[in-house]
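Support case: phosphoenolpyruvate complex. Customer-provided input:
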Amino acid sequence: MTARRKLVVGNWKMHGSRTANAELLRGIVAAEPFAAEMAVCAPFPYLADVAAAAAGKAIAYGAQDCSAHEQGAYTGEVSAAMLADLGCRFVIVGHSERRALHRESDGLVAEKAKAALAHGLVPIVCVGETLLQREHAQTEIVVQRQLAAVLALLGERACEIVVAYEPVWAIGTGRTATPEQAQAVHGVLRAQLQSATGHGAQMRILYGGSVKPDNAATLFAQLDIDGGLIGGAALKAADFVAIGRAAG
Ligand code: PEP
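Agent response - structure generated as follows:
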């Protein structure tokens, strides 16, 4: 028996417009209530609109990145304090697109998670291997290394994070990890969380990578999969709602 409530988070990436977002959110909140906790991570400029649309609703929201710095001369960056000021609950850190395209290191991802926690946000820490790493049997080593950096820096507060296992080869490719492949990695991550924090059984580990309405239920039925981080399918209200239902 676990007390983990499922969590389904939409990662809108760099998509949307004020009009499209309003319609998307209308479609999601119209489907409330959900048994699972539901959230959307929107681009920075739209967070205030999302906050207004989510007011009085059960849907939470957050951002897709934050600065590791507190404040200051960091042109273009957005601090965790600013996100908290806008009512964000979550912030994604270490998404593979940021690791790859912006060369974010394990250490920087850990600093971002620390900044998020310091301002009352829940960091969703993404880990995942590339196809080449999987083919070389490096999956466990890679995800454990990525997670270890965060756990070491956060110390006692590490039990407050959410982890998202997102195999890079499954993101936006239509190629989903099988439930067995995903569960195997989630089991490894949970053991690591347990040994580092002593609270592994209570912590949520999401799966991300081409989750769709037709594969969500089987993935979410796995012992250590506590919901999903959803990219493409989070941009259509009907699909996101269906995935949310699959988690309930
Ligand atoms: C993601 O961007 O985190 C993601 C999982 O994308 P997709 O669902 O499109 O694979």
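The chain has ten helices and eight strands.

Case will auto-close in a few days if no follow-up is received.
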